[in-house]
Amino acid sequence: MKHSTQYVEANFDGLVGPTHNYAGLSDGNLASKNNKTKASSPKLAAKEGLKKMKALHDLGMTQGVIAPLARPDIGALRQLGFTGDTGSVLKQAAAHSPALLAACCSASSMWTANAATVSPSSDTADGKLHFTPANLINKFHRSIEHPQTGRILKAMFNDSSHFVHHDALPASPYFGDEGAANHTRFCREYGEQGVGFFVFGESAFNRALSKPKKFPARQTLEASAAIARTHSLADDKVVFAQQHPDVIDAGVFHNDVIAVGNRDITLCHEKAFLNKDSVYQRLNEAMDKPLNIIEVPQSAVSVEDAVNSYLFNSQLLTLPNGKTALVVPRECEQNPQVSDYLHSLISSQSGIDKLLCFDLKQSMQNGGGPACLRLRVVLSPKELSAMNQSVIMTDDLFSQLNHWVERHYRDSITAQDLSDPMLLSESQTALDELTQILHLGSVYDFQKTGE
Ligand code: SUG
User: Fold this and answer.
1) Residue 367 region, left (φ>0) first, then alpha (ψ -120 to 50), else beta?
2) Residue 266 and residue 242: Cα distance in Å, rounded?
3) How far apart are CA 365 and CA 363, in angstroms?
4) Which domains, ranges and CATH numbers included, belong to the chain?
5) What's the pLDDT at 3?
6) What number does the ligand 1 atom closest to the CA of 28 have?
7) What DSSP character marks residue 367?
8) Which three-class secondary structure string do you get for 111-175?
9) Does the pLDDT value for residue 451 go beyond 70?
10) 308 CB under 6 A from ligand 1?
């Protein structure tokens, strides 16, 4: 018999990388498009992220950090035909295709909700914790993330008696996979068997299912089903649901922009799912007990306001005292409809007790709110102690990482800076030092980037 109450849901936030910039790379993500060409501040972005991690750690949550990827990705630029020493690769790319250069410089790995899909050991047939890095094939700049992401996850969860690391799904549009952004695990207690809720945007094989008309659906049903199989989840504990194509067309490029869930609560917009009644019914059946479904009506918060404020890209957390908190971005306070809704939610005994609000503007301007920035991993006490302890947030690690950012990050970056060889060498120096702080070993392969 498992001591379920001792399991924790840990949040692993992506540390923003030194090349954070705005390049308008994500069709269908309105913030990314609207902020293209804006100057970014990698230093501020990293510090905003660290503050959120520290605040959750201070509340007694288990908080971890995921290292950024090495960017610019010189290996990818070489594969695309740019040659010579690294300075010349960057110069040619800037001259021939600034968009490709920007894609290979993106710090998009900060949104670790897209790093992988994770299934806790209480849900899998072999009793191990399973990870599948997302192939992210819908966007070129994100499709080059998974090999390094996989290595970093292996360096964090580095004990094969507890952790299983799968390869990303085949790099084909049939298996477009965006990771935990489209996956929610419901349960009663973290250590009890839970329900895997997989939300997809379209089906590759079943052409009869509707599709969005304007923006791409990034996740396929086939990808979600493959993950449920490879993670050996029980058939009666898995629910697949289609995201409403209209909301994808309104800028909801991942399910975590329109719904959030934790344990037996979900907060979702009434337009989140196609055939929502059937979705709710199947979830209730799989849970063996009705979920607390808090449905937000369009009359209270429109889909447009939800996308602008990122209300649903919040973290729904069970605090150590058993209370439930909703972690929202500052933009929710600034939107009158959303702010009114949230205050009535908290005062209505809905099951959500407390609001926590954070400034994450640097990430938000690229379409990444509090939930995008974190990967959730439910861990037993043994699993927690078996993993790499150096990535777990402590007061000391927080101060070390803040100093590290202060020393290595620029205050501002524009598109012109991306071909600067100094930015590459500053980033490599920073990440080299970070691998030592976080005890990650040689996850980056810098030697491959040279000629
Ligand atoms: O994939 N933005 C990311 C945001 C990801 C948010 N994640 C979740 N919802 N879980 C994306 O669209 C923008 C990069 C740029 O345009 O510079 C970007 O990749």
Assistant:
1) left
2) 16
3) 5
4) 8-437 (3.75.10.20)
5) 42
6) 12
7) T
8) CHHHCEEEECCCCECCCCEEEEECCCCCCHHHHCCHHHHHHHHHHHCCCCCCEEECCCCCCCHHH
9) no
10) no
Q: What are phi and psi of 129, to 5 degrees?
A: -90, 125
Q: What residues are paired with 117 via a beta bridge?
A: 132
Q: What is the DSSP string of 312-346?
A: TS-EEEE-TTS-EEEEEEHHHHHSHHHHHHHHHHH
Compute the distance from residue 369 Cα to the ligand 1 centre, in Å: 10
Q: Is the CB of residue 370 below 6 angstroms from any atom belonging to ligand 1?
A: no
- Single-letter amino acid code for the residue at 374: R
Q: Which of 258, 366, 414 to mutate to test the pocket of ligand 1 (most atoms within 8 A of CB)?
A: 366
Number of H helices and E strands in the chain, helices first, is 17, 15
Phi, then psi, of 212 in degrees rounded to 5? -65, 155
Residue numbers belonging to the annotated binding site: 23-32, 114, 141-142, 218, 256, 366
Reading the block at residue 228, the tokens are: 């449920």
What is the C-alpha separation between 313 and 215, in angstroms, rounded?
19
Query: 449 CB under 6 A from ligand 1?
Result: no
Q: Which of 381, 434, 439, 401 is nearest to 154 (CA)?
A: 439
Cβ 402 vs Cβ 8: under 8 Å: no
Residue of 9, 48, 145, 178 with catalytic role: 178
Residues 6+ apart with CB under 8 A from 403: none
- Decide if pLDDT at 62 tops 80: yes
Q: Annotated catalytic residue: which of 254, 269, 331, 383?
A: 254
pLDDT in tens, 110-135: 999 999 999 999 999 999 999 999 99
pLDDT band at 5 (very low <50, low <70, confident <90, very high): low
Is the Cβ atom of 19 under 6 angstroms away from ligand 1?
no
- pLDDT by residue (tens digit) across 159-177? 999 999 999 999 999 999 9
Catalytic, 343? Answer no
Nearest to 11 by CA among 243, 180, 165, 250: 180
CA distances from 341 to 331, 338, 353, 372, 422 (A): 13, 5, 14, 22, 47
254 is catalytic: yes
CA of 337 to the centre of ligand 1 (A): 25
- Would you say 425 and 410 are in contact if contact means Cβ atoms under 8 Å apart? no
